[in-house]
Amino acid sequence: MNIVQRPARPCARLRPFAPIWCLSLVLLSLVGDGIAGGVPRIARLQRNYDVKNYRLVVRLDARTGAYKVTTTIRFVATASMDVMELDAVGLKSGGAWFQAGAEAAVAIRAVVKEGRPDEVKGTMVLTLPTRLAAGREAKVVVVTSATARTEQNGFFVEHDPEHPERGPIYLTHFEPFSARRFFPCHDDPADKATFDVTVETDAQLTVLANGRRMTPQAVPGDPRLARVRHVMTRPISTYLLALAVGAFDHETLDDGGVPLDVYLYGGSKNAGRFAMSIAGEALASFRRLWDVPFPYERYGQVEAPIFPAGSAAHASLSFASRESLVLPSADAQVLRLRVAGTVAHELAHQWFGDLVTMGWWDDVWLNESLATWAAGRFLAEKYGRDAMLVRAAAELHESYFRIEDGPRSHPISNRELVSLED
Question: Is 346 annotated as catalytic?
């Protein structure tokens, strides 16, 4: 699921910069592979199954941050197996069950093993009641519980000092290896699956996730709670799953094909209109640039008081910090280019990174390079080429060149990473 199923014509749609762009991409790829020199990639666990679908039912106490997740994993065995290993860190097991075909579900043993000295950190080992032959489909159901983290990874909580009356906001940040902190999974970007996510929480709060939002329903027996379901029918990597819960203001722009949503946590609706308009213009520009339609049914932008790395693009839903998404005032001209750059970059990731995903983390530079190039091209189209050349030169001098002069200097495509955080 990591390629677009159509004839490859990478340079045909990239004019007027196509020759320079394509040559640069080829040279960067060759330089990266040349530097690797056969050095093995970061250790990667080989699993003998392929996940097809995750179904998550989340029960969140928005007052305390405690939550329970019932995860149903439908998978196909790629080799004979009687043990299933999932990635899991910081989760308390509440039981597991196995079912194959029309057979009745049976309880199975689930053992959480943490403290590994490698990137994996922890696993949940499920002992299956029978040996599955290669090619056979089955499913497991695992119940886990945890509390929202204060560190900004996994499923975490934030409090906005500027708007304490809005209460806590809950967000996810799974890149690269933190989906396992929220639910047991095969946390590998190459194993894409569809998602069905239901959240039960305070009915006064807005629940956001990837894909199509179904009509919210009341939770029987407790009118204070609501059940909100989202369905993502296009397979995505686990790190691209997104969840946000909070008191958001909402506004939608429908350009005639893709509804564009902005969810604001602190500002008024008007504060997000610039980001929404830029998303509409960038979407039209990207449609002209290449012949791959927008991959998802709608696109949302979510404001957070603070967000790791400023912003992140999940499939159909992007998160960004307040300063990266919202203009403090209508006449804040200096900040317009920064907000426009963030919006265009994360929108470009919907194709480069989300629809088409690297096979492993040492090629994440391709996600970022292609999204940066596409956003830069749009900004040059909107604000002028000279302005963008000055901006690019300033960014190179202030950030990249400074890093390259220090101990963190490294090739763009790097096969010698000590850890994925590098």
Answer: yes
